[in-house]
Amino acid sequence: MVTSSAPGKVYLFGEHAVVYGEPAVPCAIERRARVTAEEIDEGLVVHADDLQLDGFTVEYVGDDTDHPDVDAENSLVEAATGYVNEAVAQVRDAADAPDAGFEIWIESDIPLGAGLGSSAGVACAAIDAGCRELGVELPRAEIADRAYQVEAAVQDGEASRADTFCSAMGGAVRVEGDDCRRLEGVGNLPFVIGYDGGAGDTGELVAGVRELREEYDFAADTVEAIGDIVREGESVLGTEDTETLGELMDFNHGLLGALGVSSRSLDTMVWAARDAGAMGAKLTGAGGGGCVVALDETDAALTALKYTPGCDEAFRAALDTEGVRAE
Ligand SMILES: Nc1ncnc2c1ncn2[C@@H]1O[C@H](COP(=O)(O)OP(=O)(O)OP(=O)(O)O)[C@@H](O)[C@H]1O
Ligand SMILES: C[C@@](O)(CCO)CC(=O)[O-]
């Protein structure tokens, strides 16, 4: 039996635009998904106690064709179990063990579907744990690539490498198309996270931006403008100039709003953080609901978020420089 873990992330800049080849800078945070894998004679048994569908905890037996016995729409169930099924397929491929059976336990500190990369964390940790259980140790870059294949499969091909590369490698990273690298020399940034208790459907939100981009030139221009913000942000990242970094986060949030992926609760939390004196604040991840990330060295934004109606939880998140690892 082997346990591996992988971190979640926040986007300093560039979500959504990264799907169209613009650069993005996600940063791994000290909240992890942990996956334990044990080889069994055949098949797949998954225990995902944190994963609830319409109030049902998910436990299921079987591969792609079998569904957990829960009273929920098939599409919802497929999306929920897809990451683990696809990760196990990657393990079998990497270890050249097409018939390997697994019992898998998942537990995670990363809220689901909230913009903190829970799916990337689960995918990276599952691939690492499954492979180690079969005696195969993959380099982190290969785990990143295989976890990306998992996300692409579940999200119908519409995924960037950003979340999975960041979770596999840790630290602050830069992703532009297939060009993925770690950014060295980025110290701890004073991240404060506000969580509205909700979630957004990544696939649906990405599809919405694609449609907008096809219909309106302004949306294509907005995606390019987000790329400009990322390039601008990179030039101050690693310097003392956190004020400019914060200002650019504010611009980035405005442009994500123009692409239709913010929400009332995300905007409310962003403004609560800014009003409390944060250097900048934006939604993180796919949007629609979930989390905002603010930059604040003081406790003011954290306290303000805790008292903001609609903000369920507020916490600090330190940069996690370690990616996927065996526990
Ligand atoms: N603790 C968990 N147990 C089992 N599955 C999980 C767990 N956490 C995440 N997942 C899987 O990841 C899916 C959520 O992924 P999704 O891409 O929608 O959101 P996210 O990665 O949290 O957010 P974002 O992509 O915006 O950063 C869940 O539906 C589930 O399939
Ligand atoms: C919205 C998006 O850019 C980030 C989701 O965390 C989608 C992706 O990059 O695959």
TrEMBL record:
It is found in: Cytoplasm. The active site is at D163 (proton acceptor). Residues 240-300 form the GHMP kinase C-terminal domain. Homodimer. This is Mevalonate kinase. The keyword Acyltransferase does not apply. Its EC number is 2.7.1.36. Keywords: ATP-binding, Cytoplasm, Isoprene biosynthesis, Kinase, Lipid biosynthesis, Lipid metabolism, Magnesium, Nucleotide-binding, Transferase. Belongs to the GHMP kinase family. Mevalonate kinase subfamily. It comes from Haloarcula salinisoli. NCBIfam families: mevalon_kin. Pathway: Isoprenoid biosynthesis; isopentenyl diphosphate biosynthesis via mevalonate pathway; isopentenyl diphosphate from (R)-mevalonate: step 1/3. Its cofactor is Mg(2+). It is an enzyme of class 2 (transferase). Catalyzes the phosphorylation of (R)-mevalonate (MVA) to (R)-mevalonate 5-phosphate (MVAP). Functions in the mevalonate (MVA) pathway leading to isopentenyl diphosphate (IPP), a key precursor for the biosynthesis of isoprenoid compounds such as archaeal membrane lipids. GO terms for biological process: galactose metabolic process; isopentenyl diphosphate biosynthetic process, mevalonate pathway.
